[in-house]
Amino acid sequence: MNDKMTIKDMNLHYSEFHALKDVNLNIGAREITAFIGPSGCGKSTLLKSLNRMNDLIPGCKIDGDIRLDGEDIYGDMDVNLLRKRVGMVFQKPNPFPMSIYDNIAYGPRTHGIHSKAKLDEIVETSLRNAAIWDEVKDRLKKSALGMSGGQQQRLCIARALAVKPEVLLMDEPTSALDPISTSKIEDLAVELKKSYTIIMVTHNMQQAARISDKTAFFLLGQVIEYNDTETLFSLPKDKRTEDYITGRFG
Amino acid sequence: MKLNKENGMKLVFFLAALTSVLAVALICIFLFAGGLPAMAKIGFGDFIFGRKWKPGNNIFGIFPMIMGSVCVTGVSLAIGVPVGLFTSVFMAAYCPKKIYRVCQAAINLMAGIPSIVYGFFGLVLIVPLMNSLTGKDGSTMLTASIVLAIMILPTIIAQAETSLRSVPDSYYEGSLALGATKERSLFFVVLPAAKSGVIAGIVLGIGRAIGETMAVVMVAGNQPRMPAGLFKGLRTMTANIVLEMGYAADLHREALIATGVVLFVFILIINLAVSMLNRRTFHE
């Protein structure tokens, strides 16, 4: 499998705090890669470095080399173009306070698509791909804030898909959702990996075991172990990984 | 004993609260009692829509002054709203901390400057400037509108900035994550989300502009005729009252009070709009 994103010798500081230490990871294309580990271990921080959302945080300094298809994302690449190619779904569903249609159309409009027919098509395809079309097709003009949490999160996934990204970052996408919504999102992720590269941060080890192809275990800003999900969960090499996945801490 | 003390304090608070209610009620009664009979005598239509104001001939039509107030307020909004909005976006999203303190102090100070000082500023700076620009009298609709625009800035900026800041960061981040620029995120996601607060600020600004007297009197020219363009003088309702109240008597005096009634109704409508907007914000 070829690598979609590569992270080499990456270090990240929040002012004085050394949040990520010597991270080396290769993210395979059209796979689901899960980041697991206890709170504060840096997995979300790493995720946000992959589409440069960390740029918003004052005092955040990144060294090392992160590449998307071989291109240095902290180099000459336009940050808005990077974020179009590397989409993100947040922990808390964050639909914009506008209609369902406008939520989805916002991204394509941002990138210069204004034809009504084209937008209609993108909206439908994105909602279908996010497995929510049937639930919302009759109320596209209604406010997105009136939807349930699980629907909102799938809407946010649809919104991310609408700009045709290559990579989808998911930051604990199900932590605010009930079990039924969670399983819908998980099914969706498995479906989406046919066409997208997915990187998912999760607190839920069963979730990582269920749906991911590769898993990276983080502890105190370091990648302790990175392997095929099956291997990592059945035959962890590192004692700390074993302790974590068997529930001895974290 | 303790109970008595408590009841006593309750009474004090109640009386204090009553003062403001009573004041508003008295103003209402005075205005309407003083103004309505005059309106009846002149004829409601003739008074509101009459285009001539000639107190010497007992002709009292305040339509020119109503239009004067509306025009001057409209133009001042056209100048003040964009400037105020951009300022509030700057302060909420772009401003470095050091500059922010200076900006905020300046805006607070602006809100506290007496209107007569704004009038002076207009009189010694903007009027001569207009004069040399147009070659005619510098006391014009535009002059008054510029002065008013400056005066409503602090109201608009403070309200808009507060509501911009209350928009959750997650909207802004969500937009950036889709590849939108900072500007697009602010103007197409954050600003619309703050809409009702921003509009409330603008409406408050309208209230301030339409009720402003001293600054306007000093720079507007005050001719009691229909507004005839940006570079012509005009007279507002407030100016009409303050200019003539000193020597008016009988029906003339009552007509001025009736002008106050019309102004009062305008302010009433504006306040109603604000409270409706606020209610909508709470429900969302």
CATH A-level architecture of chain B: Orthogonal Bundle
- Whole-Å distance between the termini of chain A? 32 Å
Total domain modules of chain A: 1
Give the CATH level 1 class of chain B: Mainly Alpha
Q: Quaternary state, please?
A: heterodimer
Sequence of secondary-structure elements of chain B: HHEEHHHHHHHHHH
Round the Cα radius of gyration of chain B to an integer and report it. 23 Å
Shape of chain A: globular
Estimate the strand proportion of chain A. 25-35%
Count of helical regions of chain A: 10
β-sheet strand percentage of chain B: under 5%
Low-confidence stretches of chain A: none
Q: Order of helices and strands of chain A, N to C?
A: EEEHEEHEHHHHEHEHEEHH
Task: Tell me the CATH superfamily of chain A.
Answer: P-loop containing nucleotide triphosphate hydrolases
Instruction: Count every beta strand of chain B, where a strand is a DSSP E run of 2 or more residues.
Output: 2
Biggest sheet overview of chain A = 6 strands, mixed
Overall pLDDT metric of chain B? 91
Greatest chain-chain contact: A-B, 25 and 18 residues
Number of strands of chain A: 10
CATH class of chain A: Alpha Beta
Function (chain B): Part of the binding-protein-dependent transport system for phosphate; probably responsible for the translocation of the substrate across the membrane.
GO cellular component, one term (chain B): plasma membrane
Organism (chain B): Frisingicoccus caecimuris
Keywords (chain B): Cell membrane, Membrane, Phosphate transport, Transmembrane, Transmembrane helix, Transport
